[in-house]
Amino acid sequence: MSLDTVLARLDTDLPEAQNRLLDFLRIPSISTDPAYKEDCVRAAQWLVEDLGSMGIEASLRKTPGHPMVVGHVPGDGPHILFYGHYDVQPVDPLDLWNRDPFDPAVEEGPSGPLIRGRGAADDKGQLMTFVEACRAWTAERGTLPCRITFLFEGEEESGSPSLVPFLKENAEELSADLALICDTGLFESKTPAIITMLRGLLGEEVVIKGPDKDLHSGMYGGPAINPIRVLTRVLAGLHDDNGHVTVPGFYDGVPDLSEDLRLQWEGLNFDAMGFLGGVGLSHPAGEVGRTALEMIWSQPTCEINGIAGGYAGAGFKTVLPSEARAKVSFRLVGDQDPHAIREAFRSYVRASLPPDCTAEFHPHGASQASEMATTHPAFEATRKALSEEWGREAAFAGCGGSIPIAGHFKSLLGMDSMLIGFGKDDDQIHSPNEKYDVESFHKGMRSWARILDVLT
Amino acid sequence: MSLDTVLARLDTDLPEAQNRLLDFLRIPSISTDPAYKEDCVRAAQWLVEDLGSMGIEASLRKTPGHPMVVGHVPGDGPHILFYGHYDVQPVDPLDLWNRDPFDPAVEEGPSGPLIRGRGAADDKGQLMTFVEACRAWTAERGTLPCRITFLFEGEEESGSPSLVPFLKENAEELSADLALICDTGLFESKTPAIITMLRGLLGEEVVIKGPDKDLHSGMYGGPAINPIRVLTRVLAGLHDDNGHVTVPGFYDGVPDLSEDLRLQWEGLNFDAMGFLGGVGLSHPAGEVGRTALEMIWSQPTCEINGIAGGYAGAGFKTVLPSEARAKVSFRLVGDQDPHAIREAFRSYVRASLPPDCTAEFHPHGASQASEMATTHPAFEATRKALSEEWGREAAFAGCGGSIPIAGHFKSLLGMDSMLIGFGKDDDQIHSPNEKYDVESFHKGMRSWARILDVLT
């Protein structure tokens, strides 16, 4: 059976596949920081060349931001689009890494070998699982089993500003029968999962301004308004004592969890205490009366992701600063409207300001939540293929993260998506010491080989 | 009359005095930042050499932190100690300066020439007014009019950790009949003032810790506690809606303003709207029901001087950070006990913490408020000398800033202090573009020459 030869080649070629990934990880393609603009281009170019090395015609496509990479393999059977992103998160605080985040290596971890470096799991390692499956398939069979389009983005970690215009402009070229997206994880690091619910994401930066210059808190402290103090009051008011978000209209469009889904999720026997315990916590901190899985998969949030104001260096400075800023994000579910919530948030902030203070806002992305069409026959076939590879029944799971691409594929290209990934809970994506288990990388490739086999 | 020759020499030598000050300002003696340790030593050495150049025996005296400079001039008549500090504040945000803060120059300002650079007003320019007065006096008369001890500190901007031990160890050497302290300003930039009330200062840094690593807000947002959110709630709770500080026992020891003082302050016709308008504000923001002058001179405050947590760089990062921190300071009046308030603040923070969060505290200085003994005959004599130089009746004023040295001189050395300075409200001390008017510098020297004359 020819699938076996593809799988065998993936086993044999694993060391070379690892080296290719390490090479890719050495490029510091941090999309949110303009200082790394050229590195993002280099990462895109790396992908073009890698696809080219296996005979796939791919090119770097300009956008107002970082480039897209698009590749095409003609063929019969269904047309599949594969999506991943080559950009990565910033790396600070750098001193918490055990190595230079862009000098990756295979390390021996407590549960087997792992690949350490920024992007190892999110998303370079993940997207390469599909690329490696295609490489092995091509090497064994001379071609891929169906028509495949590759789409790699370079702005996923910075709100994807160029994505929607690009999809619109290239709708015909990119519309396929089904999209495969590899940017998610296993359920509890053990069970393969197809994500069927994704939270949306809305990002806002708010800058509170008061005095027109930094002041001395001895000379002005008392009569002069302190923007940090105003900011803390504004932010503290975003939740009530039960963890409920207070922004007016915030819960409009949040659906009740269906009994069916609640039962299915209960059946997963999620280890909430283990999940929290893994990061040094012991109490679910969200809304009172919800299970942890509900909170992550089906409830919206409001989080402060960054705050800065005044003097935060070594020592002390009795400054009364002229401004203070925070980055706030909202995870959205159901039919919550990110644009309405952005306006409601801004109105809330403005209404909370005392005299002499103004607020300035900077938008950072807005995407609605999305739910997958699990009735599509590919879902059940893929579930079986995944179960076979991992020796465990694959789950239809929710996901707390926001992968707006699935919603855009549906609304702009009329295309359903399957989100499958092999990350583990302890991969520390977005954190220092990000890693990807060699097991995830290896079984990930094998999973895609199996999925390509059942889908065609 | 020989005072006239001293004053005339100060007029003639002004250009050289300015050059000496510029030279002194070029040394980046930022005491709070360990990176500038050697520069602090250089600034101390500069003073030793400058005093030496006019025949005053001075030396650099070691402390566990930055060195003290002590100089002695023997003589008859009263023994006067002069105090100033050679360290300066940090300079960030650097991009708001019109020049390199340590490449000072004389610029033409809207109301005459000014000396621009970090430390120009606080306190290098001010301390040099006294040194220049002594230089002219020595040049004209061959000696100073009385016994004078010079004491220059290098840690005033970073909580003076070495000061109290140094005063205790050298109490005999440093005890004089009266201390002169030059680190304050004119009243409303026009009227010479002797400061008779100083607020105390208590500094605390608090670090709220939650998860044991930075998390991804998609994966953990909801059930995982966010330390920034906890910090904003803790800080927002420090004041009630009337601007009253809520820390239990905070107001213990705050005296009522005497009717006498209230009337005297009313007589100063303080232009509160002009004071606020100069920094882009129009509403007194402190406690409801207090005048701006009361708020600055006689009321305590609680201010957040710095806050940091999560990702605050360019772009957006959906991080749920493992910790968040703030620097908080309290200005104290009357008999408020800084140590009791530190404990009460810490208890308040600890009591506000949700499960899974801890707080770590770092103390940054603690000094009580102090009130001067205006009955000392030197006060009235000095007031006359100042009034003569400036052509306006000098005021007995309060001061919002905290100059703990006056309290230490009283409690440790039994010595009364007169605080006299020539800074103006728009000097932007602790801010970008700090400056000192040449008028302040020049009339400051002349003021000290007159004061030395009347005190001896």
TrEMBL record, chains A, B:
InterPro entries: Cyt/Met_Dipeptidase, Peptidase_M20, Peptidase_M20_dimer. Transmembrane segments: none annotated. Keywords: Hydrolase, Metal-binding, Protease. It holds the Pfam family M20_dimer. One of its GO terms (molecular function) is peptidase activity. GO terms for biological process: proteolysis. Residues 198-356 form the Peptidase M20 dimerisation domain. PANTHER family: BETA-ALA-HIS DIPEPTIDASE, SUCCINYL-DIAMINOPIMELATE DESUCCINYLASE. This is Acetylornithine deacetylase/Succinyl-diaminopimelate desuccinylase. It comes from Poseidonocella pacifica.
